[in-house]
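Fold these two proteins, one after the other.
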Amino acid sequence: MNKFSIGVDLGGTNLRIAAVDEQGKLVEKVTLGTKVSLGRDHVIGDMCDAIQRTSEKFRDTPLLGIGIGVPGIIDMQTGLLRESPNLPGWADYPVRAEIERRLKTIVILENDANVAALGEKWLGAAKDFSDMAMLTLGTGVGGGLVLGGAIWRGANGMAGEFGHTTVEPEGQLCGCGNRGCLEQYASATAVVRMAREAIASNGGPALARAANSDPEFSSKSIYNLAVQGDEDARRIFRYVGRCLGIVLSAMVNSLNLPIYVIGGGASSAWEAFSPSIFEELRRRSFVYAATAPHDPMATNEGASARLEAGPGRKTIITRALLGSDAGLYGAARLPMIAEARR
């Protein structure tokens, strides 16, 4: 490879580091646990050690820099992590300056959902499009916008917080202080909460058996029941799809982008919730109703959804293709973009 960069996905549970070349080939990947309880200096130390070990393997190849996806609000000018719910004790921490001090190379910080969107734009489901939006379904619900091929951050670096769009005005209290946010109805955490609510309200026998027998009762367990035909589990995912459809309808009407990508770990339940997404979109978005593909599910097959430009262009809602590596690819892409602009 001619040049490479290192992408980092810094999560509250896992810390992942990858070396990626300019063609998008992932040539090395390391996964560590994020030992948040030991403090930010320890986590930064683990990260920098892993980056140094990885870059040392390719010491004869020019390193373009380090891109890091971080969950939370970042001040792009100063490199401060203003706030991160998954990294307690990191508020107003100068993450970029500390890593640059240790590694003595260029470091670019970015919100984790933004880099996931950039990864899907570069190599994934949206690679044929210059404009796209992404929703990431995980512990919470994140979002990212790429316009004209570049991440759109907004006036304060906080654009794309689709997970905090209201879907139930008097609904579940959210950590952001609002009620009824999408995050409370479409995240992996929300799926488990709704399953436990179903057990408490009507017994939900299959859900109850799964919860009692599985100490790690998760959204995946509930999805497996839905696939097996359990109506209580299926009802939960229909509701997930309905809530996603409500938010996507507003996004389609407001942004009129060609493609909207849904990723994150909970997107593995796509088959269970996506039919409800398309039902809601047709009901609630006149823009989508006018531009919907004949078979919206068919756009999720293959490497990408290719569309002809012009007045007949369709609106694509599709599942992400890069899985958990989207953020790594997107983070690694950041120094490459910076290099091209110099």
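Now the second one:
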Amino acid sequence: MKQRYALIILPFLAGLLAAGCRGVPVAGEKSARRDAAAVARQLSPPPELKSGASLAEEVAYALRTQPQVAAAYADWAASIEQITVERSLPDPKLTFEFYLADTITSLMPGLAMEVPGPGKLQARGALATAASRVKYFQFQTVVLQTALAVEKTFYPLHYLDERLRVNRQTLALLTGLETLARTQDEVGKATLQDVLRAQIEQEKLRTETANLEDSRAVLMAQFKAALGLSQARPDPPVPTTAGLVDNGTNDAIQYETALRQNPELRELAADIAVAEAQLAVARKDRIPDFSAGGEADVKASPVVWNPQFSMTLPVWRDKLAAERAAAQDNRRAAQARWAAGQIALAADFAEQSYDLRAAERDLALLRERLLPRARQALAAAQTAYSSGQTDFLNVIEAERARLNFQLDEIDAQARRALARAELQLLVAGVPPPTAPLLQEPPATTIPKP
């Protein structure tokens, strides 16, 4: 009876342990799972883009279709699962031993369990939690980079259409100048050379326009790639307006925002927390691990129970010291990288802020002074040519100046838009309103360098 009882109870206990045991979550594990679930709900596939979609809608679409975003989210989610792995006890072991001579003289099923030393599982769980926070900030960086990629490929495409519009207007103007030159030639106030000059300018501009139209396919391919669309998919609608809004924030406030929200800087700060957790794990390695279990000889009568107990002996002091020293070095390195990141952030902020201000000054100069005067100069040259007071070269030069200023205006608009996007998204770390990110990202304590 005792033999049957032992044969039944030990496998039953082993099966119960294998099927029904759950560990104890560490601090931050449940909240990390809730955060990942909240972001996952925001990553649901978006509806297809329709004609007239705004730039904000295109960005929101890309953030949910771009494979890089999905990959970064999966990396973050996997790191959260690793928290459970690291804080869990090792699997129990079911043992089976017997002695065999002519017959089986001893039959001993058993069960053994390894138990890490006090605090070790919690320390490993804390390390995995800190590592998952790093993965979140990496995911946030990918989200912001994806949004920036959409804007960086949209603006050249948008302003290409603007250049084409200006070129077509200029072609119409040159056609009018050619007509004027023919009229002057007919009344003897000009020569055929003026007509030919107007035709040359038209042919040059037609070729440039054809090249621009041909380059649109390249820019569209880049725009589709930024949206996460394969080249086999139909071309998406291109927003008709850039949708730029001046938030009126001064440099000092924006820089303070960048220090708090820049994702790369927050990732470096999270790396320091990882190093701190590694140091805590290294300190716990001085504590022995334990193993407990038992076997029952079911052939004996009465049944003989053999309890077992063992522990590790962390005697290699040089190894333990090296682990702690390595963890301390990792912490110092992480702190140095964070300090270097602050310096790099200040340089990036200064560069992008300058590019933005320079583009805005160029735009103001072109719109308020140069373009109005170029239009006046062209009109004056046309009038003077009609009355025979100037030659056709002056008209052509005035037309070229007006065209170049208009193209410079388009270039300045593109530079301003790109600088603003770079400053807001990657430097300041301000996500678009539709970004699939936590409403309140995990707090990162800014460490002391």
